[in-house]
Amino acid sequence: PVILAIESSCDDTSASVCVDGKVLSNVIANQSIHEAYGGVVPELASRVHQQNIVPAVQQAFAKAKVSKNDVDAVAFTRGPGLLGSLLVGVSFAKAFALAKNVPIIEVNHMQAHVLAHFIGDNKPSFPFLCLTVSGGHTQIVLVKDYFDMEVVGQTLDDAAGEALDKTSKILGLPYPGGPLIDRNARLGNREAYYFPEPQIPGFDFSFSGLKTSILYFIRDNVAQNPKFTEENINDICASVEYRIATILLNKLKKAALHYGVKDIALAGGVSANTGLRLGTKEMCEQMGWNCFIPEMQYCTDNAGMIAIAGYYKYLKGEFADQGVAPLARMPI
Ligand code: ATP
Ligand code: FE
């Protein structure tokens, strides 16, 4: 089948065309408008989605060299995400499907982050554990089948991406800070500064304490030396990134041992992080586990992952009806 997929849950507008389970295009239009505000402004996001969606879809067809008339189904992100942003993608998907008289397929954004692993040739086998780390979520997911997933651990407060973005704000770096922390960290010493690891039971996480300790650490040092942050930016970024990666990997390891799972996967925007990718590979090598990390373009929000999720739903004949509405919250 030919599937057109739309992703618009946050601030990226993305369209993808997938033919028989092969993702042929994955066009992503970023919104730079939010940089000036230090975070995503929902009202602005939905307006920019409206401007971007038609060109993104046109490009997705052009890149895939597929005609709009050959589409068999339209997949879209139903949730979770920003309601106004989701509404643009959901409405577009419905209208396109009505015009072409084809069915629509609703996709859960967090399931899609996990299913991004089925885009390439190197696929994990069930059951596997997926650490999904993004701007809004931090979850350890036990993946039993394409659409049979159980969250076995999650954050009790901030997401890992949020911790990175808030840290970068404290450091005076522009939004989104994750990629900048990554870049600076490559030039720094990860053992330069020590931040404590929270003691949380089970496979759950907490990042709000870490954020506070970073805030106080910077405040106290800047009081002594106003140039502290800029003089030590690389070491600070490396130390923060290292602590966040170790918090994540220690829990992932604990869960893998508990469930006896040997296929380990990363997903979500923060899985683009160099330190976390390297740390995961190292842990898997040590433990004799198979490590699965998506290509960069399929880590952050993208329609390719919506397309592959849509493909597996198409095979099961699971279609939505035209009355479907987006959901800001949507369990996996
Ligand atoms: P969700 O998927 O939970 O709804 P989202 O869609 O906002 O949230 P993603 O696009 O999956 O999240 O991920 C965005 C997050 O990834 C941001 O917090 C960003 O800072 C972080 N991020 C992106 N690249 C990197 C990187 N190289 N290193 C660290 N963090 C990164
Ligand atoms: Fe996401």
Automatic annotation (TrEMBL):
It is found in: Cytoplasm. It catalyses: L-threonylcarbamoyladenylate + adenosine(37) in tRNA = N(6)-L-threonylcarbamoyladenosine(37) in tRNA + AMP + H(+). Its main location: cytoplasm. Its cofactor is Fe(2+). Its EC number is 2.3.1.234. Fe cation binds at residues 109, 113, 301. Binds 1 Fe(2+) ion per subunit. Keywords: Acyltransferase, Cytoplasm, Iron, Metal-binding, Transferase, tRNA processing. The keyword Metal-binding applies. Substrate binds at residues 132-136, 165, 178, 182, 273. CDD domains: ASKHA_NBD_TsaD_bac. Pfam families: TsaD. GO terms for molecular function: tRNA N(6)-L-threonylcarbamoyladenine synthase activity. Residues 22-307 form the Gcp-like domain. Required for the formation of a threonylcarbamoyl group on adenosine at position 37 (t(6)A37) in tRNAs that read codons beginning with adenine. Is involved in the transfer of the threonylcarbamoyl moiety of threonylcarbamoyl-AMP (TC-AMP) to the N6 group of A37, together with TsaE and TsaB. TsaD likely plays a direct catalytic role in this reaction. Belongs to the KAE1 / TsaD family. NCBIfam families: gcp_kae1 (TIGR00329), T6A_TsaD_YgjD (TIGR03723). This is tRNA N6-adenosine threonylcarbamoyltransferase.
